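REQUEST ID: PR-0412
SUBMITTED BY: lab tech R.K.
PRIORITY: routine
TASK: structure prediction, single protein chain
INPUT:
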Amino acid sequence: MSEEINAVPENRSDYVIEMRHITKRFPGIVANDDVTLCLKRGEIHALLGENGAGKSTLMSILFGLYQPDEGEILKDGKTVRINDPNDANALGIGMVHQHFKLVDVFSVLDNIILGVEPNRFGFLSKKQARERVIALSESYGLNVDPDALVEDITVGMQQRTEILKMLYRNNDILIFDEPTAVLTPQEITELMDIMRGLAKEGKSILFITHKLNEIMAVADRCTVLRKGKYIATVNIADTNREELSDMMVGRHVSFVTEKSPANVGDTVLEVRDLCVKSKLHKKNVVNGVSLDVHAGEIVSIAGIDGNGQSELVQAITGLEKPSSGSITLCGKDVTYQGIRYRNTHGMSHVPEDRHKHGLILDYDLKDNLVLQRYFEPEFQKKGFIRSDEVKKYADRLIEEYDIRSGQGAATTVRSMSGGNQQKAIIAREFDREHELLVAMQPTRGLDVGAIENIHRDIVRSRDSGVGVLLVSFELDEVMNLADRILVMYEGEIVGEFDPKKTTPQELGLYMAGAGRKNAKEESAE
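STATUS: complete
OUTPUT:
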C-alpha cells in the first residue's frame, strides 16, 4: 500500500518537485523531522496530518517563507534554493495560504495583481488585468467583485481571491493549504473539478487538507505526517479514509457523534425581526430574522457562505450593531449591549475569523486563554494580574484540549499552527461558565481527531443544559450535531428541518433558494 520515498527514486524525471530529508526547528519544537516528499508531474498529491504535524511548515519551506535547517529541494531534478516567495514564483510555484495573505484596505483586483502589476509607459494599467481576472473568475466558478475592498468581503470571498491570485500568475506547481475550509459543498465540488482540470493540463498540485472525503475524491497519492515525522505515502486507489485517519492520529477515529435526544429547557436566546445593513450597499444583509435557542438543544444554521450568516452571528455576539429588531439573552435585552456584557451574562462565542476576532496574535497563549476573565478575582488582585494563577489555568487547558505549542503557556500565539490556535479559542470559550454557546465554523482547520473531540464537547455542553447555536458550512457537521436545522438564504430563514427527517439534498435545494417559496407557504399555513 505504501511506497518508500526517502530513497532516491529510480526515475527522477517523474518528479517535478523533490523535498528531501527536510528538517525545520523552531524554539521548543521540531516542526519537520527528516521529511521527504516527492511530487509527480500532473498529479494531485494530498498532504495529511494532525494539527501541528508540520504540513504548513513544509509547504511554507517550498514557497520560500521559511528556510530548512537541513535537507534539499530539487525542481526537475536540479537542486534549487528558494529564498523567498519571489524565487518560488519564478520557479512556477504558487500557494493559497490557510491564513490569507491579503491587504485588507486594497481591492480584490489590487490584491490579485500585487507584485505583478501591469504598466504602460511606467503608469499602472489595470484595464486588461481586470478583464483577465473577471474571465478567470467566470471560467473557474470563483465569482468575486474585483472592486470590493477585502476588509468588506466574506471569508469565502477572500479564499476565492487567494485562488485567483495564484491562477493569475500561471503557476505550474500549485499548493493549496486547506482551500475548502470556508467553501460550501457545491463550491467544494466545483473546486475539486477545477483541480482535476488543472492536473489534466499538466499542473502539479499539493493539497493540504483534513477532509478525508476530499482526499479520497480528488487525490492520486497522499503523504501522511504525524508530529513532524514522515509516516507513509499511499496510493489513494489502494486505501480508505479509515486507514488514513488511523495513520494520521495513531488511533481509531469515530466519524459519527453519538448523542441522546435533546432535553429542551427554557429559551436562552430570542432573536426577533433582526435586520443588519450591508457594508457594501444599502440593502439588509440580514433581513427580518427571528429564531429561538433553548437550553439543552443544538440549533444549526446551514447555508451557502455570504447569505448573512456572518452578519447575523456578529449582531448576536455584539461585533455588529443591528439596524432594527431585538436580541434577548437569558431574559435580558442585549440588543445594544457591549461584548463584555454578553460574555459576563451567559454567552460564549467561537468566532468565524480566529485572527480578527478570536485572538491577539502577538500575546502569548496564557494571556489569550484569559482574555475574557483576567478581571475576575481568580486572576487579579487589587488591579494586578495573578500571573501564577493565569499560568496554572492555562496549563490545565493546554493539557485538557491538547493545545500543542513549542513553549507551552509562554508560546506566542502567532507562531502556533492554525488548528492549535483554534483549539485555544475552543478551550477558552468552552471552559468558562455560559448558558449560550454561539459557534461559527468551530472545527475549521481541525483534523479528524480534534473534530471528534470538539463534537463530543459540543454535545456534552448541550447535555449539561447549554443552548448551542452552531453555524457551519459543513453539511455533514450540521446533520451530525443538530437537533434543529435552520436554512438561511439571502439574509432570511427560509426553512426549518428535523435532521432525522431531511436529507443533504433537500437542505441543498433550500440553501440554493429553490425551496424558499415553499418554506414561506408552509410558515404561512
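NOTES: The chain has three domains: 2-92+171-249, 104-169, 267-346+433-524.
REVIEWED BY: pending
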